[in-house]
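Reopening this ticket.

The earlier resolution said the output was attached, but the attachment link was broken on my side. Pasting everything inline this time so it's all in one place.
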Amino acid sequence: MRIIYFVVCIFLGAPLAFAFEKKTFDDIKLDNPTPEELVMAQIDAYNTGDINSFLSTFAPDIKIYNFPDQLSTSGIEKMRTSFSHVFTTNPDLHAEVEIKGVKGSFVILHETITGLDYGDDFDVIAIYEVNQNNKIHNLWFVR
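Inline output:
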């Protein structure tokens, strides 16, 4: 329920901290990043296809959902397998962040994904939850 409220707040204009400063993975100290810095480091690693840097932003027990509660992936090793294939077969893969909202441990991004081998770009809302160990431990996609 907390996630649904958070998503509704974004679209109804509840106060959130919006920022558009671009930081790269190398700019961020991953020993104690803010949730926003961690998520943007993950986006940067995704855009370069760097599987190790990408996975370093996630908790070992990461859970990825199709919003609101359909579990699609669980665990870092499943992510390694699937994203290694995605990065290899889509060398031009890119996530463009269009809107960013931050509230506590939650970061919400409107992403446009391009560079897929089958050619179709798509938009997605991604809701990241960062745990107390500064790792992404829950991720919801609204498609």
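Reporter confirms the inline version is readable. Residues 1-25 have pLDDT under 50 and may be disordered. Helices lie at 2-12, 35-48, 51-55, 76-89.
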